[in-house]
Amino acid sequence: MAKSKKKKEIVHLVCEESGDYNYTLKRRTGGEKLRIKKFCPRLRKHTVHVEKKK
Q: Which of 46, 40, 37 is nearest to 18 (CA)?
């Protein structure tokens, strides 16, 4: 029997301070929203990025 593949969705990571869409990810559906500290090129420092569906 073949295993069923779970669908992946494309999500964008948005900087909380500048509001820019800096990164995109493919992740499985469901679960909590991501909150990751990543580099923001506009501010030139590490800031918190939040997952947002487009």
A: 40
For residue range 41-54, what is the model confidence (pLDDT) as tens digits?
999 999 999 999 87
Q: Give residue limits of the domains in the chain.
A: 8-53
pTM, full prediction: 0.79
Decide if 16 contacts 47 (C-beta within 8 A): yes
CATH 1.10.600.10 assigned to domain 8-53? The reply is no
Q: What angle do CA 39, 42, 46 make, to 5 degrees?
A: 25
The DSSP secondary structure of 5-48, one letter per residue, reads PPPEEEEEEEETTT--EEEEEEEESSSPPPEEEEEETTTTEEEE
DSSP secondary structure code for residue 51 in this structure = E
